[in-house]
Amino acid sequence: MPNSKCLQKSEPLWKEWDQKAQKNGLRHQVNAVNGDCYVGQWKDNMKHGKGTQIWKKKGAIYEGDWKFGKRDGYGTLSNPDQEKGKYRKVYSGWWKDDKKSGYGIQFFGPKEYYEGEWCGDQRSGWGRMYYSNGDIYEGQWLKDKPNGEGMLRLKNGNRYEGYWQRGMKNGSGRFFHLDHGQLFEGFWVDDVAKCGTMIDFGRDEAPEPTQFPIPKVGSTHQGPVATPRETENSTSPQPPTHTQAHPAWPGLAQPSPAREQTRFCFQSGHPHGDWQRPRQIALPESAAPHKVGSTPQDGGLGLPCSPIQPLTASLQIEILDPNGVLEEALAMFKKTEEDED
Fold first, then answer.
1. How far is residue 256 from each of residues 53, 206, 219, 253, 261, measured CA to CA in Å?
2. Calpha distance 46→67 (Å, rounded)
3. Which helix (H) or strand (E) holds 99?
4. Which of 142, 219, 291, 309 could form a disulfide with 147 if both were Cys (CB 3.0 to 4.6 A apart)?
């Protein structure tokens, strides 16, 4: 019985030709139908390895790493400069899946550029931005905007240190007004300071300091000139502030230390801090109608001296003794004199 042999099927010629046409390794130049040009390494008919791509429509050039037809690795992107007639570098850094990812430098203009981290063609992570007006921002970024902790240093030297959100000051932070020698620390909402405190900071070294320093909380200085109050060296006792009522004088109206319009004149010889209710108080005839700015005589009662208008004796007693303590004491003294007579 004769033996029959099966003939082997041959591959179509187009497959053989296509396999020979597959681009692998280094090719000098490959032109696309749209006019783009690539020079570099290939693998399985895809750009893979080192290569240079030129886009005809925009004239941009990319030089760097490729992976399976996409920019992946370190590379530089440049655009043509029509004025100077040469290429201007736009981005230099790392790429992934044809997008900027990792550390890189983006040039937005001659004096404006960003250096830092990228993710998906957007500034994300830590980075430093140099603006064309001279300002510098250094800190965290998210979705191409400052977000998180960061510092903005202005051209004039002032700076903000604090939190950011969506490219605006949001949260706690400090603003250094170094040109005026002041420091503001507070809370911001959408670039607007809502609350905080302002203190002097480097006022002696400031080029344009404020006219007057900021008084400290609890300071003995008052007024715009900040003249010290003579409380320790004074021979006459000072009345307590209007915010605290003295136990011996519950109804005594006290002047405000910040806006004192009426001065109190007391008889010399009273010990400092020893405020005791007098048992008997006499009002001499010589001290009855005191003039503005006058001082009490020996044995007389110290009455307020107003720089605004003269006060009668009865009105002065009402100011000093709105609850009638002095008036009651005077009535008792007159009654005692009548009994003695």
1. 79, 34, 14, 10, 8
2. 8
3. strand 99-107
4. 142
151-206, pLDDT tens digit by residue? 999 999 999 999 999 999 999 999 999 989 999 999 999 999 999 999 888 888 88
Domain 20-200, architecture per CATH: Single Sheet (2.20)
CA–CA distances in Å: residue 137 to residues 114, 152, 160, 171, 190: 10, 4, 9, 17, 17
Please state the domain extents for the chain.
20-200, 240-270+277-341
Helices (H) and strands (E) in the chain, counts: 3, 19
50, 64 Cβ separation under 8 angstroms: yes
Q: Where does residue 71 rank: exposed (0-12), middle (13-18), buried (19+ CB within 10 A)?
A: buried
Average pLDDT over residues 303-332: 55
The CA distance from 160 to 140, in Å, is: 14
Sorted by sequence, the CB contacts under 8 Å of residue 28 that are 6+ apart come out as 39
The pTM of the full predicted model, rounded to 2 decimals, is 0.57
